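Why should sequence recovery work at all? Because a backbone constrains its sequence more than one might expect. Tight turns favour small or flexible residues, buried strands favour hydrophobic ones, and helices have their own preferences. The token representation captures these environments compactly. In the example below, the structure is given first.
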């Protein structure tokens, strides 16, 4: 799964990496948690280009009666995303990229009550992108809420050291196809939902500060000595 991640690059770097056309402010984030507002890259509503949007992490299907369902839909499984009612409409029309520069996972250590957190990242790049879906929902008061989810797949050999699932991470060459609104048949994009190469990833133990989403500071990402 993917339940906590980081995004520390500057807005200028983010705009350059993802070819974003709108302007925005973004402070470094060291411990992004579900239900918080997160950055997502999606096609602009009209015309060509990509925009950065701020979405609630935890997808609320357009047909939902209550926004609380979103807290259970922070992740979507690659093997069922095309058929599960909560995600299948978004897969055809509302695909997005979730920028990140690291994510956390926890490993049980024999003889210890507290799991050891690890920060996982992609080597030699300032940021990368998770496969995401977004949706808009209107609450009973008529207010629109845009939300998102991160797609996961089976863990590769590196991630198996800490968890049996991992987020789908895209190669930049695949961003365009994933965001192409003309590709509405899931079969034209689901082959992208695969494991990321082990040799391009690294896994580093970090402080248990990340265990609490209230801790949002650089110390969260510092490698343990």
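From this structural description, the recovered sequence reads:
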């Amino acid at each position: 799964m993917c339940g906590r991640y980081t995004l520390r690059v500057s807005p200028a770097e983010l705009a350059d990496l993802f070819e974003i056309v709108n302007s925005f402010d973004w402070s470094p984030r060291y411990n992004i948690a579900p239900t918080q507002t997160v950055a997502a890259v999606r096609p602009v509503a009209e015309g060509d280009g990509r925009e950065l949007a701020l979405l609630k992490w935890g997808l609320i299907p357009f047909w939902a009666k209550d926004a609380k369902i979103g807290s259970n839909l922070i992740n979507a499984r690659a093997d069922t995303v095309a058929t599960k009612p909560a995600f299948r409409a978004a897969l055809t029309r509302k695909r997005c990229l979730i920028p990140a520069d690291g994510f956390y996972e926890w490993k049980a250590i024999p003889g210890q009550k507290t799991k050891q957190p690890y920060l996982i990242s992609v080597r030699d790049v300032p940021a990368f992108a998770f496969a995401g879906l977004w949706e808009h929902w209107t609450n009973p008061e008529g207010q629109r809420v845009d939300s998102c989810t991160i797609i996961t797949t089976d863990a590769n050999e590196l991630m198996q050291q800490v968890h049996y699932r991992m987020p789908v991470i895209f190669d930049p060459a695949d961003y365009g196809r994933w965001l192409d609104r003309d590709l509405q048949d899931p079969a034209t994009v689901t082959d992208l939902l695969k494991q990321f190469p082990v040799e391009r990833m690294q896994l580093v133990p970090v402080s248990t500060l990340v265990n609490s989403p209230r801790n949002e500071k650089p110390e969260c990402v510092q490698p343990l000595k």
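A few observations help interpret the result. The mean pLDDT is 96.
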